[in-house]
Every structure is written in structure tokens, then in C-alpha cells.
């Protein structure tokens, strides 16, 4: 009986939500994060637009990867991390006590700096997430759909049973993107996805990001400002844990409002 | 601390600006010599204008090459990109000013061996105003001073008014005596060139406004 009441209370609490403005997929409100006593994110307020690419730029250690990892609570695994404020996804607070991290990560996929395929076959890499999440999907269908979405199908369709580690770095990274797509997320976080790739592989990933935004909301952290300028619709500039400026990419790179942004993007410091 | 590679880049940006300034100074010298040549009907001065025009053209090519190299190699953004874009745009204006000075030189050559139908007063005055405008435009670029837009527009109105005034005056001479038609049409060409140079000076300051603020100056075509 008590369990039932607790479950009802949990459902009741989980249903509490705010209404985000139209076109806003996620939003942070006064969000701060500490690693132990070090405040790594300071009162961040940012709105992530739906079906757009948002780039986060800034010098090393400014908190851009930390912020990115907050959108699917990847920092939860770090013991000393403490947060304050809210991050709303579709109006739900993802840092709410009752929010299920696994649900969040199903909705918010992630691609890392270094390609990290599992030591399985290409097909099994993609299907793995579906299996773990008990998704009722046809393996062949999901493998083909995701590889096509990740612009990798034509290159690997005849070798789906080969080990994924036999792929080139660029192909491995696209496989990781395909793997992230398999669990049908709504948001894809990319943490410097091209930093380990050559220019051709980078161009393919950038083209892919353009394609992906039709169906997904993409947030990308990059050190490459030309890449941010090329692939994103909105750009956030961070410095020492603060969000200094956020705006349309064209405005940030042509006419930044803040002197600090101007100095960073023109290479006066960083 | 500014990284070493950016220091070289900033130095290059400075050099580019310096080249545009030198090109601007040459353009002003070209107008001055062209008008002196016309007033004195001195073909030696026309030759000097030709030399200056060739140097202006060489600057045009060198600045374009340097600007494009900077874009290709340094991927400039924000104010740096606006600065380089402005350099690449205004060298066309400065190059045109050099060409119009040459055109005035050609008028001088066509009038060679003749005497003016009257002492030239209004045309040198119009040229003086035009030179001041070009000088103001080059200063505005060098100092990054977008506030020169209104003063230059005011001067442009004066130049336009002088154009109308001189045109009417020359027309009356040509109506009175058809023998002045040949010379009168040459004067009309000169004031047309000066009026165009004044327009180019305005273009330059408009580009400086963009360079400094990121806002494009919209005006009636």
C-alpha cells in the first residue's frame, strides 16, 4: 500500500512541468555546477532551439563539455559533482529527484570526441541499444535506417557482420552517431566529434549534422570555430564557467555583442 | 597572452590597412595633379597622373591578393572579417578615383594648345571639395571613425549643387556661342568625373560604418 502511495506521489511529482516557449526543446534556468568546491558552471541560462544545431565554443576549461554533459546527466557519475538550478527538457526538469536518468539518456543521445564503437559487428553495435532498452524493432530495419541516417550505409552495407573496429576513424564516428540514433533520441549531444578526424571525414560528419537537424535537436561542443560557424544555427560562447554570449551564429561571428567574444573568436586570446 | 601565430596575423592586418591608406593618399594626389594640369593645361602633370594611376592599380592588385590570402589562411571573423571586407571594397572606390583623375588628364590632353574660355574658378573649387571628401574618407578608414558619415554627406550635397551650377553656366556659354561647345562638353565631363569621385568617397565612409558597427548603410539608389 505504501509503495502504491509512493508510486502515485512519484507520478504526481514527475508530471509537474513548465511550459517552454514554442520551438524550445531544452532550457537551463540559473544552472550551476560544482566539482567539489570548484564552481565549473555559473548560473547558466540558455535555450536550446528544437531542430536546430547549437554550438558551444570557448577556451579549454570554460565548462562547455561540462554543460553539454549536463543535458543527459552524464556528470552524475562523478562523485563530487553538485548542481543547482534546473534543466528543462520538453518542460520536464531532468534534475528532478524522480527523473529516471536512463529515460533521459534514451531521449538525449551522445557522441564523444573519440569514436568508441563496441568490439562487436557493425550491425550489433547499432542494435545493442535497442536490445538493452527492450525496444520492439526489427534488427535489419533499424540497422539500415540508422546507417542511412548516418550516411554510412553505402560504405558498409556488404560488411555488416564485420567487426566495427575494422572501420576507419571517420566511419567509426559515423557508426557511433548511427548507434546513438538507434534508440530514437530527440536530442543528440556531440562533444568535439571531429577532433580526431581528417578533413574529409570531418566534412562528412558536418554534412551529416546538417541532415540530422531535420529530425533531431543537436548540441555540439567544438574547439574549431570555423566548424561552429559552418554547422550551427546558434552559438553559445562560454568563458570561465559563464555563458558570455548566446545568439544566432551569423551574429556571433559577424558582429558579436560582447568584447570578450570578439577577442576569443578573432584569436586575441584563448 | 596573444599566441605567436596571431601576432603575425595582426601584423598583416595592420600592413593591409597601411597599404589602403597609402593607396588613398595616392588617389588624393592624383585628383590634385589632374586639376592642376587642367587649370594650367600642363601635359607634364598629366603624365604624373598616369604614373600615379599605375601605382594605384598596383596597390589595388596587391591589396586584393593580400586580403584574399588573409581570408584563405587565417579564416578571419567578426571585426577582422569586416575590416578585410572593407579593404577589398574600398580599393575599388579608390581605383575608380584614380581612373577618373586619368580621365581628367585626357580632357587636358584634348584641350592642349587651346586657352580656357574663361578663368577656371568653380571647377577647381569643386575639385577642392572633392579632394577634401576623399581625404575625409581615407581618414575615416584609418581612424575607424564612422562619425564622418554625416559631414561627408553634407559635403556631397555641396558638390552636387556645384555640379548643377557649373553645368548650367557652361550651358549658357555654349548656347551663346557654338564655338564653346567643344570645350564646354569637356568641362561637363570633368565635373561629372568629380561628382562621381565624391560619390566614391561617400561609399568609403559607408563601408567604414559597416567595418566599425556591422551595420550596413542603406541609401536610395
Main beta-sheet annotation of chain A: 6 strands, mixed
- CATH topology (level 3) name of chain A: Rossmann fold
Low-confidence stretches of chain A: none
Mean pLDDT of chain A comes to: 91
Q: Write down the Rg of chain A.
A: 19 Å
Number of helices of chain B: 6
Order of helices and strands of chain A: HEEEHEEHEHHHHEHEHEEHH
Task: Catalogue the unreliable spans of chain B.
Answer: none
CATH architecture of chain A: 3-Layer(aba) Sandwich
Beta-strand percentage of chain A? 15-25%
Q: Tell how many strands the DSSP assignment of chain A holds.
A: 10
- What is the makeup of the main sheet of chain B? none
In CATH, the homologous superfamily of chain A goes by the name P-loop containing nucleotide triphosphate hydrolases
| Strand order in the sheet with the most strands of chain A | 6-7-8-3-9-10
CATH architecture of chain B, please? Answer: Up-down Bundle
Order of helices and strands of chain B: HHHHHH
Q: How many individual helices of chain A?
A: 11
The number of distinct structural domains of chain A comes to: 1
Distance from N terminus to C terminus of chain A (CA atoms, Å) equals: 59 Å
Tell me how many strands of chain B there are. Answer: 0
**Which structural category do the helix and sheet elements of chain B fall into?**
mainly alpha
Describe this structure in words.
The complex is a heterodimer of chains A (about 270) and B (about 220). Helix content of chain A is about 35%, strand content about 25%. Chain A is an alpha/beta fold. Chain A has a single domain (about 25-265), classed as P-loop containing nucleotide triphosphate hydrolases (Rossmann fold). Chain A has a 6-stranded mixed β-sheet, with helices on both faces. Chain A has a 4-stranded antiparallel β-sheet with strand order 2-1-4-5, covered by helices on one side. The longest helix of chain A is centred in the middle third of the chain and has 14 residues, at about 170-180. Chain A is globular and about 50 Å long. The N and C termini of chain A lie far apart (about 60 Å). Chain B has a single domain, classed as Methane Monooxygenase Hydroxylase, Chain G, domain 1 (Up-down Bundle), CATH 1.20.58. With about 220 residues, chain B is mainly α. Chain B is elongated. The model of chain B has no long low-confidence stretch (mean pLDDT about 95). Chain B has helices at about 5-40, 45-75, 80-110, 120-145, 150-175, 180-215. The chains are: A alpha/beta (about 270), B mainly alpha (about 220).
